[in-house]
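Section: Multi-chain targets

For targets with more than one molecule, the full set of components is provided together so that the structure can be written out for the assembly as a whole rather than chain by chain. Components appear in the order listed by the source. The example entry contains two components.
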Amino acid sequence: MLYRTSGQFKTSYVADMALFPVRQDAVLLAIILAFAWVILPLTASEFAFQTLLIPILIYSLAAMGLNILTGYAGQLSLGTAAFMGVGAYACYKLVTIMPWMNPVVAILLSGVFSAGVGVMFGIPSLRIKGFYLAIATLAAQFFLVWLFEKWGWLYNYNASGAIQVPNLEMFGVTVAGPTASSHVQYYVVLAIVSLMTMLCINLTRGTLGRTWKATRDMDIAAELIGINLMKSKLTAFAISSYIVGVAGALFVFMWRGAAEPNLFDIPLSFRILFIAIIGGLGSVLGNYLGAILIVGLPVILNTLPETFGLPISSATVEHLNVMIVGALIVFFLIIEPHGLARLWALIREKLVIWPFPH
Amino acid sequence: MDFLNSILVKPFADMFEAPDFLMQVLWEGLVSGILYALIALGFVLIFRSSRIFNFAQGIMVVFAALTLVGFHQMGVPAWISVVLSLGVMFVLAVSIERIVLRPLVGQPDIILFMATIGITLFLIGFGELIFGGENKMMITEELGIPTGEFIFEPFGGFLLLEQKDVTAVAVAAILVVALLMFLNKTRMGRAIRALGDDHQAALSVGISLQTIWVLVWFIAGIIALVTGIAWGARAGVSFALEVIAYKALPVLMLGGLESITGAIIGGLMIGLLEKLFEIYWGQPLLGGNTETWFAFVLALFVLLFRPQGLFGERIIERV
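Its structure, encoded as tokens over all components, is:
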């Protein structure tokens, strides 16, 4: 009823390729943005900020980075957490060496370092493919986490071996560190994530995105039509690692407040891979849907026993959580292997032609 | 010069100075190498017959070992617990095939791979729920595994071989030979290999996909149980064991995803080399604990020269 495309005629190619070919999409997005920028910050509690809103945004961003690499360029990576770690440690070094630096600039710069490391570990992708490459990215995962632990310079040789986020100010407002307020941090995260999302949408629609998709679908064929595979794969690694690195810096500076090397261990990599796959590979929207599911689910499961008054210990709940998340992953893969984004696309199609079946 | 000396000369000088210690290191490497090879074998079997990259193999090791110890703690005699655990692994194989794999037949590889990660999470949660997260003792003595030591004195030095390690190596060798016999000499084994070569051709001559899948997952379960017993006897049984599952991955890369020989030789190579590197280069020069990444980096370098691993099938691509 409300979601109708009739009457919206496209009279030029430009209109056909527009960001919002359907007017309702733009309206929907405006509503979501209004929620994210105005309504949620006014109504959400401290708990909601810390357990839902901020982590969902950060995880979506990390998944978006991975999605560029895996969903668009077709290079499966299991080392996402390590690249997040590179971003986080780079950001830590930047703000401790140059304390006068604007923290947002530091966060955006730290992605550059992780992009560099990403390209380095992406070079084998020119020769290694498929699962072999996936295992090869594990080399990055294990090596980098080991490096975070052993290279004292990275954490300024402090005794705990962990990095602590200092209090950082921007225009007189504390944005990171123990005294920063959740509202401010939420807005910083939201601003950066919105910016990155816009960047991603346009990148994937443009020449570069089409090059990636050709590489993903069949790299030899892509090469035959004149695509430079090296350029295509390495730019995918660079941009993906950049976004992942920024997400890692946000992860530590805007949410966790401190980080040990094992925070960036392989379970985090898998978590982000789950988000990207359950959300839908090769889609930007999917990352948000996946993140909402994977971050929100444990929170809901944790509160359920209390609301029903069930006498279950927290350890049991923890184990049940892991079990249910595992089962749900399998369940979602079975009902829709292409992810939640595809589910939304199907719903949209149905809405457009409703009430007719075809 | 000092730097080059400490990398290129000193480690080898150390090796020659204390050959008995070198032999001890090699033995330790050999034992862990055999166990890596066993886990990798489970992967290879499943990958060959279904192109599924079974990430859950490592967790199956832990799960099998926990089931065994769990049954024994309930008062079941050791050998009956082994039989019961095998039963549990069979039920697991059937349910994975029925519930997870059958609806996902024909999906892209990455989806099946994710599904096995889902299975991994499920098994971790399920195992911890039932057996608890703490470290458990493997029932080594109850199973009749000797726990003494052999002590040798080569080159006037000292070499200590634990009898349970010797047993583990022997059992692993027997298992590998039995598996090779099974794959090469029996009808079922040939069916598994046929399915690995060409799915559709195998289906058209009447090989049942479902039966074979249950069978390979069950064999992977048996391998998991043996590995679990052997590794559990060394380090106790807990979910911390899953890290060794990751070690099987570079073994696969090095040996090739399809090759059984590759899994065995790759496992031994990685076991030996990572121990040598850790003791002679890692600990003195890099601050130790290099075992977490050495295998991966080694495999990565080998792959740069042979993208299909040392023994993998040559990758032929057509447009």
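Residues 229-256 of chain A form the longest helix (28 residues).
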